[in-house]
Write a structure and sequence with these properties.
This protein has 9 helices and 20 strands. It is of the alpha+beta class. The longest helix has 14 residues.
């Protein structure tokens, strides 16, 4: 084994090799385990390991500081010098970086920076897999077929800089997606969970939830497109607000390009977005949603900067009591806009002040409403209003006077999450949830269900 093989040693060696004016090295060690199943039987499982190294070189010049970024996977010690030289060449060949700032310094070293990376493996499913097998048996006896995927990964990130930063973060991430289908495949229901270790995931509970939804779907009601009172479950709320979060760049807003731009110039910070006491926030130390407590940036953009690597992250309230409080900024864009520095945090929580569960919100419904399962294929239509379109999937149910009375057809919707917040009439109890659409990119979310009196179902969809 090479004497330079541990992640922290690779970081140190890359920094030693650098001849640039500044250098940032990010080493990421990833391990993952997964299970797949179909038709009430396991089909595949596997474990993977991987390493990615990113080198960011900065070069000072008469007109400013340039940056060059090069990333490689499966890096060996022999690859280090060519990788560092490639980053330096990229920096020397680039013009001055618009977002150039002094590299971050003065942040205390992380405990365990020199320790081995954390790892996951098939043992993470030690209790989950047998419980899943029991669910297969119950599903078969109940006339259901279960399909799905369980994935767990652990990423250890080591960040070192020429200014002395030595930071490390271990990020566990687990997701479970479970589909139940009728034998003729005409009825389908979905449930998903995000988890750090699968200790808090109960397949029996999920199967019981899906069995109930399939029973609801035994009666079919066809409805036309239109505006309906709609109950959005936490997973659907998460998908919509994550897109809003990704669209909340202060620079874009200040330049008049987003829904958060103030007519006539500036941003909408300080404006009331909802009459409900909604607070949208991020916190790297949020229990159950813990994320990196410092900036990890592999590239620069309107809402990220490689020069900010290692910048400490603090709890931030994007919306407080219904009022827009912050937009995402780098140090550079904060200077351009005159707003506080507020880098993105890798989790999102919406507190609505409500105490009701989704089931209790259904029971409190008077008249007719729709209950969604999840959203799918969300795409932006108009950035100026953040109008989104997408599809409902795996169950839209008709609620009449507090009871679910059947399943209706799927729809295409046209809605803006900002508009929904302004029109929502009730928020339920906040709970951990897995976004269905964005679960491959963003899993750390806690949301309430929302009641919207006039959700726009713009056309009928024939999907299941």
């Amino acid at each position: 084994m090479s004497r330079v093989s541990k992640p922290h040693e690779i970081v140190e060696r890359a920094l030693d090799l650098s001849t640039a004016d500044g250098c940032v090295v990010i080493a990421e060690e990833n391990s993952s385990a997964n299970l797949r199943w179909a038709g009430n039987a396991l089909t595949t499982n596997g474990v993977t390991r991987g390493r990615t190294l990113t080198v960011i070189a900065t070069v000072d010049g008469a007109q400013g500081t340039a940056s060059g970024v090069v990333s490689r996977s499966a890096v060996t010690p022999d690859d280090l010098e060519p990788l560092v030289r490639a980053a330096e060449a990229a920096a020397r060949g680039a013009g001055p970086a618009e977002d150039a700032q002094p590299l971050v310094s003065g942040v205390p070293a992380s405990p365990g920076f020199t320790d081995a990376p954390a790892e996951t493996g098939s043992e993470v499913f030690g209790d989950f897999a047998p419980a899943l097998g029991d669910s297969f048996a119950r599903a078969r006896s109940g006339g259901r077929e279960l399909y799905g995927f369980a994935h767990h990964e652990m990423t250890s990130t080591y960040l070192g800089t020429s200014t002395g930063l030595r930071l490390r973060h271990d990020q566990p991430n687990g997701t479970l997606e479970l589909n139940a289908k009728s034998p003729d495949r005409t009825r389908s229901a979905w449930a998903g969970r995000a988890t750090r270790d699968f200790a808090d995931v109960d397949p029996a509970e999920l199967d019981a939830e899906l069995a109930r939804r399939l029973r609801w779907a035994e009666r079919r009601v066809e409805l036309p497109a239109g505006r309906y009172e709609t109950l959005l479950p936490p997973t659907a709320v998460a998908d919509l607000l994550i897109y809003q979060y990704w669209s909340a760049s202060a620079r874009d807003a200040a330049e008049g390009r987003t829904v958060f731009s103030r007519p006539g110039g500036g941003t909408r910070i300080g404006e009331k977005l909802s009459e409900l006491p909604l607070t949208l926030r991020g916190d790297p130390h949020e229990p159950g949603l813990e994320s990196a407590p410092f900036v990890i940036a592999h590239s620069s953009g309107d809402d990220s900067s490689v020069f900010d690597n290692g910048l400490p992250l603090e709890p931030v309230r994007w919306i407080e009591d219904g009022r827009l409080e912050r937009l995402t900024t780098t140090r550079h864009s904060a200077g351009l806009t005159g707003l506080p520095v507020a880098p993105a945090v890798d989790n999102l929580v919406l507190d609505g002040g409500g105490e009701r569960s989704l089931e209790e919100m259904v029971a409190a419904t008077t008249g007719r409403a729709l209950l969604l399962t999840c959203l799918w294929y969300i795409r932006e239509v108009d950035p100026a209003s953040l109008l989104l379109t997408g599809l409902t999937r795996d169950g839209v149910y008709l609620v009449e006077d507090g009871e679910v009375v059947g399943e209706v057809n799927n729809f295409r919707f046209n809605e803006s999450p900002v508009g929904l917040l302004s029109r929502a009439s009730e928020a339920g109890r906040t709970e951990l949830t897995l976004p269905r659409e964005w679960g491959d990119y963003f899993t750390r979310a806690a949301m309430p269900a929302l009641r919207v009196p006039d959700f726009h179902m713009s056309s009928v969809s024939r999907g299941v």
